[in-house]
Amino acid sequence: MIFFRSIAGAAVVAVALAGAGLANAKTLTMAYDADPVSLDPHEQLSGGTLQLSHMLFDPLVRWTKALGFEGRIAESWERLDATTVRFHLRQGVKFHSGNTLTAADVLWTFERLQSSPDFKGIFVPFKAMNVIDDHTIDIVTDGPFPLVLHNATYIFTMDSKFYEGRSEIVKHGDSFASQNASGTGPFIITDREQGVRIEFKRFADYWDTASPGNVDKIVFTPISEAPTRVAALLSGDVDFIAPVPPSDMARIDADPNVDLVTMTGTRIITLQMNQDRVEAFKDVRVRQAITYAINNRGIAEKIMKGFGTAAAQMSPEGYLGYNEALTPRFDLAKAQALMEEAGHGDGFTISMMCPNNRYVNDAKICEAAANMLAKIKITVNLSTMPKAQYWPKYDERAADIMMIGWHSDTEDSANFYEFLAMTPNADTGRGQYNSGAYSNAEVDSLTEASLLETDDAKRAGMLRKIEQILFDEAAYVPLHWQDLSWAARKGVGIEAVINVQNFPYLGDLVIE
Amino acid sequence: MHILAFLIRRLFQAVIVMLIISIIGFSIQDQLGDPLRELVGQSVSEAEREALRDRMGLNDPFWTQYLRFLGNALGGDLGTSYFFKKPALEVILAKFPATFELVLGATFLFVSASIPGGIYCAIRPRAWLARFIMAGSIIGLSIPIFLTAIFLIWIFAVELGVMPSFGRGETVTLPWGWRTGFLTRDGLLHLVLPSISLAAIMLPLFIRLIRAEMIETLSTEYVRFAWAKGLAARRVWFVHAFRNTLLPVVTVGGLQIGTLIAYTILTETVFQWPGMGFMFLEAVKRVDTPLIIAYIIVVGMIFVIVNTIVDLVYTLINPMVKLPGAQG
Lengths: 512, 328
What we know:
By secondary structure, chain A is α+β, with helices and mostly antiparallel strands. In chain A, about 30% of the residues lie in helices and about 25% in strands. Chain B contains twelve helices and two strands.
């Protein structure tokens, strides 16, 4: 399902070396573009936090590469009834502090998650967690809820005895949990200078003795400048980097000593046409004309240099809502005809705003889109700005067309519609990132219904229907799913541990 | 007493400068972006962000916020960094040694190269080497620093593999908490490329300046008189002429400290050098406003201190110069 492109023919070495275990312990030096803001897994819902959480903690279940689930703290699970899922916890799991994990820790973690401003939204459908015995818990949902396992990937069990009494979640200041951690994960932090480096060592009592991982020590350095990050890899100063800038891919590809791995991502990049600001955008023909006029395949090939997959919907392949009937629809003549039909044959002038450091090549994409719209006589006044300035503008809905990229926190299609397509509603929070003010009662009700449907086949039908409606009504302009990229020195088996969620399972990493 | 009066006056000026900088810093902070966006995940609701903003006091009127800041600042508290979760001043001071050592390394390089280079170009203006240096300095002036830096990394770290590509390497913590890279081989090795990049900005300017001043001095009456007296060439060049060349060089040098600090931001960012400049750029990206404001105040302070030192050095080189404001 997930499309791999392994350049330089990286073979998966994990299998061959499984069982070598810790006998030949290795050190991994790695450089990412940023380091996590805190050691507290519940402080900020971001890629950096989740990446770190998979090193220091273990979730109840985690994603497999094929977008399935595998047990971590939970050994097995079963659905008892429409609203209850029972989890059987693994026995003998040790925390870094030496404490033994029990169901009480999972409950404590769950309650803490419910108090976290960033995470509580995910757990709203979870009515209760009931401890049955020391190694059994039940998760009870409000109604029938299809995403229990999806959300369980966020329950990184914390050591309740270790944190007790000093577990406050502080967003803007010091806290015990932001500087100290005790989880069950494969690594322990031995040294940390924020913004400069973090050193990890392998946790000697890690429960997963079957893991092939042989990395004993990790030195993590944030290198925010892409050219420096690439140079650090090519010079051998670090073993593993991410992300790789598209402009350097050819060079890395050509180097015989390093492997480049890319993967189709799940972050959709879109443009939204604000119907509250522009009367013409209320006309479906004008919106369609715009989607016909923007050659998103061209953008993916020329501007993204192939580092993106042109999209005609929000759900990437592999998601339940992915509708294979929908394909990109660039057709300039048709776009022009639709404009004329709508009475806008002479075009009009609009404003457009985009960030210039948030998504890969974001500003260039917008420039290209603006030029493409000029062909159907829509004059675009484009302004681009750093994300720090962009977000306040986005919240104000400050331009007629605005860019937004979205990655579904639940890895489920419904999350896209909840935030990007449903009618904006300040009370429920639905449509928070629908700057186009697109509103369709059927999309709203289908999305809500899909969140109460536990039958996968029925859900898929609903979600695919939503994609079809959004496509037919040209609710927004789909551009592409942004790819993911990693590169490592030959012999570092990253391909086996990376995933589309972009949190490599470094505990299982094997270095030759 | 002159020096004391001068220093007191300077201190008074420094306080005013700090006040103005802090007001400017405070009034632009809304333009820097919304820090809440950097503190919370993207699905957190606007209402939730607004509540946090309220709790952090970001919704208070400008003067309430400013006076609160000023009150804290008097107690030495310039606010708490959102990202580092530590007092901003503490974060900056911890980063200061890295920047200072980089500036020191660069200064050592451009001073030790520009003085002989400039003098040579002045006394042998027609030699091919002098022409080569002058042509090179024009090119040097026009290459942006990040290009120099990436070029150096590419040649020496990636292609030749003789230099580290980023960071500060191994450091030693001195008893008073200063972390130095000067005491280890690894630390010194890491200093080379960033120092060259930073020095490359100053070098052409100083070569040209020293050359111009030296040529002018060499044509003055007293130098001609020295020649007429039959003094050795070395004595004329280095004692009589060069000493008088230094005066304008020190003045310009003092003014250039600002440029140097500005360029540490770029150099440190490219080399991932864990100093104040890199920290500042990251703080801007993260909308870490308390850290941004503290940084500009500290840099303002450094300016005042450096200018004071330059003025003092001035009097040492040329006893004829009086300290400004100290009436004799």
